[in-house]
Amino acid sequence: MSRSVRVVWDDALTSYDFGPGHPLAPVRVELTMALARELGVLDAVEVTGCAPATDDELALVHTRDYIEAVRRVSATGRPDLFHGLGTEDNPAFTGVHEASALITGASLAAARAVWTGEAEHAVNVAGGLHHAMPSAASGFCVYNDPAVAIAWLLAQGATRVAYVDVDVHHGDGVQAAFYDDPRVLTVSLHESPQTLFPGTGFPGETGAEGTAVNVALPAGCGDGGWLRAFHAVVPPLLREFAPEILVTQHGCDSHALDPLAHLMLSLDGQRAAYAALHELAHETAGGRWVVTGGGGYELVQVVPRAWTHLISEVAGRPLDPATATPPEWRRMTKERTGQTAPLTLTDGRKPEFADFSAGYDPADPIDRAVMATRKAVFPLHGLDPLP
Ligand SMILES: [Zn+2]
Ligand SMILES: [Zn+2]
C-alpha cells in the first residue's frame, strides 16, 4: 500500500473571519498555503478538499442547542452572549456556522484519511480550534475541530487516541471533552494559567486516570527549556499509552514575537518540536498522525513560516531552515499585509536542550513545572516521576 500524506485545503476555509482588527486573521493561513506552494512543499503531498461537518458530526462534541444557536447567529449576524458569540474574542458574523463547520469538516477529512489508511499522515492548518466548549464559543473558537475529530475516531472504534497540544494556550476544550474518558490521552504544554488565557491547565488537572496531562511553563521560557520539558513528559507518556492514532495541535503562538503570549520560542525550536512529534507518531502510533494548526497571531513573521515547516515535516521532506523565501511570496505578503516579508525560513537559532534524565534542579522554574506534571500523572501510568 502506498503511504501518502494528505493536506486538506479549500480556499473557503479563509471565510472563518471575525473581521478587521481581530487577531485570528485568515490571511495567516492564506500566506501559509502560498508559501508552502511556492516552495514546492505541496508537490510532495496530496491536496484534497473537504465537506462541512454535518450537525450529527458536530453533535459528537457539541450540544444540539448550541449548534442551533450558532446557526441562528450565522443567519442573522446577531450576538448570542449566552453561547459566547458576540463578545470581543468571538464576534458574531453571518456565515459563522458554515465557516466553522467547514474547518471541522477539514479536520474530520484528515482524521478519516488516516483512520482508513488512505493516508499515513494528514494535516489541516486551518484547524486546531481547541478552546471551543460543548455549548459555548471561547477563545476565537466556535466548533472544536480536534475534539470532534477525536470523538469521530472513537465512534469508529478507536480505543486509544492521544492528543498533544503545543499551542501556547491550554487546550482546555479538548481536555474538557474527554476529561473522564480514559480512551483519550490529552497532553497540553502551555504558558502557565497564572499569566495567560484561559486560566486552566494546572498540573493537578489529571482527568479520571491521569489521561489529562498539563505542563504549565513559566512566562519567558525559550527553546531550550520548552524542549527539555517536552522530552521529559511527552515521549514517556506516549510510549506507555501506546495510542492507535496521534492527533496534534500546532498553535505557533509560543513564538517570542507572538503578540498575545509570553513564551520565547523561535521558529527553529518549533520546528524541532514538529520533528519530535513526527518521530513519536511513527514510534508510538504506527505512523497514524493527524495534524492541525492552532493559534498564532504574528501573521507575517511567524505563522506562514512555522506551518510551512510543519507541512514539510509531515510530508517527510523537512525544509532547510536556511531556505530563502520566494520573491513571489514576498511580493504577495507585502501586497496583502503591507508588511515586509521575512527573507529566510529561520530565526537563526540552534535549538539545544539538556535532557531531564541527566538530573534536574529543584530551584529551576522549568524543572519545577516538569516535576509537578510528572508527580501528578506519571505514577498513574506506572512511570517513575523521578528522572
Ligand atoms: Zn493559542
Ligand atoms: Zn512520517
From TrEMBL:
Pfam families in UniProt: Hist_deacetyl
Keywords for this protein: Acetoin catabolism
Pathway the protein contributes to: Ketone degradation; acetoin degradation
InterPro entries: AcuC, HDACs, His_deacetylse_dom, His_deacetylse_dom_sf, Ureohydrolase_dom_sf
Domain Histone deacetylase: 22-312
Residue stretches spanning the membrane: none
UniProt keyword Protease present: no
Record keyword Secreted present: no
Stated family: Belongs to the histone deacetylase family.
PANTHER family: HISTONE DEACETYLASE HDAC1, HISTONE DEACETYLASE HDAC1-RELATED
Protein name, UniProt field: Acetoin utilization protein AcuC
Organism of derivation: Streptosporangium pseudovulgare
